[in-house]
Amino acid sequence: MFVKKLVEKASKKQHSGGIGGLRAEDVSPRLAFHYGVPADAALLAYDPLLHVLAVATRNGQIKLLGRDNTQALLQSPSPIPSKFMQFADGQGVLLSVNTQNQIEVWDIDTKRLCYLHPFEKQITAFTVLQKSFYIYAGDSFGNVSLFKLDLGQRCLVDLPYCIPFAESYGSTANGGNGVDVAFVSPQPLAESNRLLIIFRDGVMTLWDIKASRVVFVSGRTTQQQSHQEEKNVTSSCWACSKGSKVAIGYDSGDIYLWAIPDIFSAENSSSSSNPNLPLQRLNLGYKLDKVPIISLRWVPSDGKSGRLYINGFSEHAYLYQVLILNEESESRIVKMVLPITEACQGMEFVTGLSDPNKQRQTVLVLLLKSGQICLYDDSEIERYLLQSQSRSPPTLPSHSFVKQPYGDSGINVAKFYTSDRTATANEDYFSTLASKYPWLLSMKDKGQISASLSNIHKTRNLYITGHMDGTISFWDASCPLLLQIFMIKQQHEDNTSSRARITSLQFDMSSSILISGDQGGTVRVITFKKDSSDNILSILQGKQGDNYDARSIKLKGAVTSTSMISNSKHFAVGTEKGIVSVIKVDDATILYQKQLECRVSGGIASLQFELYSHNGYDKDLLIVGMEDSSICILEEETGKLLNANPVQTNRPTRALLLQTLELSPNEAPGSDNHDTALRESLLLLCTEDAIRLFSLSHAIQGMKKITNKKKLNGSCCFVSVIHGASSEIGIVLVFSNGKVETRSLPDLSLLKEASLRGFVHSKNLNSSSSITCSSDGEIILD
User: So which residues are the signal peptide here (predicted)?
Assistant: First the structure.
């Protein structure tokens, strides 16, 4: 689950004439903050010095997760996946290789793509040499190229050094036809100038960088002589701190541990004309049956042993195992299988907690195929392996998943209210709260962190969420990290907990009344007790249940819409059965009900109370939008249907928004500067495929008069009216593919367009997702 926030701020310019439409210069749609892990995560990288975890997605995004809950989202110019990603440790630079073989250089402090280096060949292996920041790139032709990272300019410098396939592969180079480089890495010794190159077919070369020659070649010839089937290398890693052992995984599921001959004795005993010295294959004796080894990682435990983490998966099977390897012997000591429930795409070891005073902790971070991140305490894994060698029965390590601290239940519906106060944010206050928030990658209890009620006067924005399990939560949304203020657990009359999904919310700040409806048809009227404070959120202070009164009523069918106006004595509720109920606020009794017919199966999508004035005549209306986009107009007091012929679209289409639009107060009646049609009240109807403006006066008479219409390019899933600082208004539209449009009213012209890459809107009723927008254009997407 993740939250995105799009901010569109209108300027404070005064406009004259028309309906006060927003202009292009008034809006600036942009992604302000992204919280959590993107759903399509596919690759991990970690900087152990800066304690930053990078999570790359399949659409060109990279999410950064740092200490003290710092988070950032990087977006590549093209929505394409990364296949390699590595930090220049401690330098604030992240390097990523995308599937178009472009090397991206990111500055993580400025969140900026500083350099894009195109590579002519397909990059098949990529390694950043820390401290010196040389970069080795192996390609599909078997060559290895060398770059230098210029930290000052944040760019790559091509170096006149290349290791050709014909020289590194040895005498079996097959007439110059290249073989993919599967692994390239310097030997992990400070005094070593050797580079280990492993080709896809299993040939291994130790290359002397200074002398530009082969020290030895081995691997494939040994495999052929033993008449083994051909295998392709899929992963590899060093398996000791001295660079004398290397582990190699194959697509057959085999894992070999090779002993690299002492490089200095090898150099003295060989000549450049005879570099084919055999490597010694140690007796690891391990194989995952027909499960390709996707990744290997070796972690030292002490001076004599280490742990080899093995990740293997295919379309039909997956396995994640850990072995203990002794650096001074050839034997495999013990193994364990981690009980993951799906294939693992990547792994990293993250050290440290957000609070530096706490005990340091190393967490094994597993990126699963679904995009979820699974966490294991590495000390528990080590303890299990050690206990496995004793008589005491070991206990499998516990694990947890990365979640947002918004509770275990999904958000199904939400409302967002922003304050009109002009006070600036208290940055110190929110920074302190952020530091107390549970670290996203912590194995500790991720219980709710609540905003202090003594500081509630600092809250500027309120976010109310209705959940799949029937709870309602109030959040301080003044800063990107949402802080829970208050939570209501719905109760039946017999005081048992109601777990019916919340389907509708309406909150009136001036009267402090919350109306909620759920899937079971229960409507609750929650009235908060006011105090003398000027802060509207002071109503949320107090013990659970002591600061509000609740009344409820049961209706037929799931609640789909609610509406009320400030300080009114009644409110309206619509259900999936097409029934409109007008209910008294004080005792939750029904004033009247009206059954409305729908062209197709469906219920009430929208309700709005409206005072209609025409030729000196005032009438209170209840305007009803059906899910099939039919518009019915009722007399508010009696429920009498005023338009016997509902205004309808030519064909049934799902309605998203129905709202009345009033004239700008700047426009004088009888002005000749504007079309007469624009000077009357309008009905704005937004559907999945179009926006329409109807004349309200004609709709009351049962006539359909369209004053403007705009077909949409794509499937729209959310629409909201947004307001500027004075009378200017517009609409914001969110599409199911992540496109975001802002349009002016009443001409419906496109002002600005943006894109929420990675956003996926699901129409599945069992999935939890919500979109909500404040009146001034801040959007929260969950």
Answer: none
